[in-house]
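Reviewers of the previous submission asked for a worked example of the structure-prediction workflow described in the proposal, so we include one complete record here. The input consisted solely of the amino acid sequence. No template or homolog information was supplied to the procedure at any stage.
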Amino acid sequence: MTLAATVSLSADDARRIALRAQGFLGAPDRRGGVRGVLRHLGAVQLDTISVLARSHELIPYARLGAVGRTAVEEAYWSDRHAFEYWSHAACILPIEEWPHFAFRRRIKRAHGYRWHKMKDKEASCRLVLDRLRAEGPLTSTELGGAKNGGPWWDWSETKIAVEWLLDAGDVVVTERRGWKRVYDLPGRAVPDALLHDDLDDRECLRRLVALAGQSLGVGTRADIADYHRLKGEQVDSVIADSGLVPVEVEGWAKPAWADPAALATVPRGRHRTTLLSPFDSLVWDRPRTERIFGFAHRLEAYVPKPQRIHGYFAMPLLAGGRLQGRVDPAREGSTLVARQLSLTTPKAARPMAEALREAAQWVGCDTVRVERAGSPEEAAAVTAELAAL
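From that input alone, the workflow returned the following structure tokens.
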């Protein structure tokens, strides 16, 4: 790694910096635990799909190992530690970042609605807020029902109102209960020192760009924008004041910026061997993943089954600091089933077996079975390694 007037990084430098920034290189911060992972990443994406576990549970597991799933939920949703809002997608965010999303709340308010429109906006919102004031935190079901009885997008007036209030910041979510959002008033859920929208758009953007740079270690304009789903021009407007420094990365066609702290020391330490959620922030940006790891990945959950190549919820295998395969897992009783797996190299059979065994134990399975693989040789190799563990 060369530190000079213009910093130049090799492709391997950039890969190791990204791995360390995302918590996959070096000793894991077990003292910080799940909350430390959330603060380190700045955002943990939520998603409805649950295979081994829901994605927000898989994120700390991938970095810390077999953290109890109940402990994961409690770490996120207790002590006013975090809130849910729109970042990369619907994400769990550290509560101290509440003021920095004021710019997005202002955008939502100016737009006036998300995609549903209310029949009587004033009355519907007033009803929701009055119920929350009188009864405390409530789910949409407790508020009167989330749907009108039709498809999932056929929301009730109450659901439309409470989601609009969430967008605008008049309601906050600091808990999920049985996967349902629990809505509360910001005055009860957000600490007093943080409960304000005083920061102007520029300061909000500067903070989020800086956070993205720290969480990525090194990234292009597009990488940095994608982390909290900013626009390219928003990044451009504050990048010079963000504290990030321009760098050149071998093989990258676009300019990049890095966190100075990431450049201060050479990334060293133990690499994690683990399966990754497709929504993990190490791989959620597909072009970046391909650029850094030479690994093209696509979530096929929403692809018709006959057209799937790697499976419904294919999880990349991270081993030795590289993406060395993928597996589509499922559970059948106490058996973890690798419905389909593939390896980028025959040497990945051992780490795939180790990752499958660890994941099985984490979710309470005592056996692992390989159902299909990219080739008979891959299936046989991983099965043999599982038997040897």
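The first helix runs from residue 11 to 21. We consider this example representative of the routine output the project will generate in years two and three.
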